[in-house]
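User: Structure please.
Assistant: Input sequence and predicted structure:
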Amino acid sequence: MSIPLYPPTPALTDEKILLPSASFRKQTIRVISAIVLFFLVYLMLLAAALVLGVASISAGIYIITLGINWLIILVAGGLVVLGVAVIVFVVKFIFTSSKAADRDNFEVTEAEQPELFAFIRQLTTETKTRFPKKIEISPDVNAAVYYNSSFWSMFLPVRKNLIIGMGLVNTVNISEFKAIMAHEFGHFSQRSMKLGSFTYNVNRVIYNMLFENDGYNNFLQSMAGLHAVVAIFAIVASSIARGIQYILRDMYKLVNKQYMGLSREMEFHADTIAAAVAGGNNAISGLVKVTIGGITYSKAIGMANEMLADKKITENIYDNQQLILSGLVRKNELQLQGSLTAIPAALAEYDEASRIVYKDQWASHPTFEERKASITSLNLYVPPDETPAIQLFRDTNTLQHTATKMVYVAVDTKDLTVCPANEFEAMWQVKDAAYVVPPPFESFYKYRVPRYQEWDLDAVIESTPVPTFAEIFNDANNKLSTAIRRNENEIKILDAIAAAEIEVASFDFEGQRYKRTEAATLKVKLEQEQEADTAAIALLDKQVFRYYYEQNPTVKSYYEKMASIIQHTNSYTDLQNKVINLLNTFYGQQVAIETIHHALRAIRESHNPEMKTKFQEAIDQGVVTNETLKEELTAFINADYQYFNAEMIFAVEINQMIHCLTSVMTAWNLYQYCQHVVMLEKLLQPVPAAL
């Protein structure tokens, strides 16, 4: 049967490529071996715990028969406590119920979406998989397979469910959608997914023994409180539990590291299925579009969060996502038609790739480049159908509105108003423009504001020769800022490798192989590079000033104003740090009430007056522009927060203070960055002609 809007399938000359690879099968055996080993270790721990527990309880009962006095009763009771505690610790996970997390999804039916179901049914035929039990729509940029991972799912066949993200559908064409769905059905066909159930339940057991111990610890503490003799046995039981935890931590690493390896192989295999039914070019393009969709959806979510501060919501976040994407395409002259092979540089929210290459044994997915190389090697091409995937759906407006409501599921929207589309567009254009560093400064000042407050401008004028434009704006200088950020990241990676936080025996740097023990030596080299680059860019910043000052001496006042803004931002940062440090003395900890009172008293008496002054300053200087935040700050300024009294802690006051404090910090950082952009734009303005 011919199905409308169903892209063609490539001619497959060798169906053997659809079989699991040798590395896939090898990794499957490793996971099975690790799971079997876990159960053997657990059974040995259980047997040892039962022997010790029964022996302790029996010894306690036997001691009672020797005679009755307080010491004998206490020792007997302690032995019984020890025996019971050890047995309970290794079996308590059986009596723990875990409630599945609610999913922010909603189900669609064939009656509602017949074209989508026909498309999926045809795809399951091509991929030789079962039709999903349910098809659900999620609000984000996502596609996934899931099933209820219960005890019985380890042994019995389980129907899998398919999740389709509305943010994904809003981004891809129908060929890319077919490839992405085929990838998920590739997972449907993998019997190795059942190992996920075993791994999930292994993790449940381990997690329960490592972390879900409040009731167990309370039991030991209550027993220890009966008498010092009983406390000794409670301490022994606690020590045995810690020994069991030590063993289980190693088992967790073993099982999950092997499963992550299998997970990567499962991704490669699912990519092969996708390429076989939709074309490798469309599979790669789909991966790129998922990233692009994630970037634009994240920006739309960020705007939605900002609108909440103005007590506004959006009815259709996917219209906003499309508007943001369209604006980025126009501004950067992007081409998103055809089969994409890489994320456009203008949309990529990351710097130059790290020069350090290592096999991340804890990664659940291969890197994009690894997946791209694997798919390309299959040499399967199908011309893309540029029809938007959203056309597979009926009543898309209702679907998108429903998905948008899921975005606000944790928000009380009763008193919020809807932001019209034209108002959102105007807000986005203002926000987007505020962050755009004008050419030729993009490479210098994107994500960066120099420390102008440390400059003596007169000394800079005297000591810095006037450079030419070419001496400043050239390829070498354009790469400095990126190199510094990249080096910062690479130094952190080397620290993690040296400390064995990243578990590798070796790694590559610029194509050369290094042992883990050589990471510290290489770090010294990168630190020297970093020092040289930092000095070079510091000089470059001064050359920029000197170049534009020579053309227009008024530029000096721009830099003076910018230095003042940075000083105000730093002063506010110091205040926030002092308050946060005081809060950290008790937040999330069990401490004496006097410690809490001492910290809150210091905030109230030493920092409240300064907070009020700086909040008013932020309003007066236009740092805070959001009307709702202005009202909240004014209310704080006019209030007399005490934070506590002899009877209770005033959590509402503390939370409101933290909200105001952090919101103004965010406003100062944004204001500083935007004012720097404004200053750079002024540098480019023509110099007024002399009268």
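The chain has a mean pLDDT of 88.
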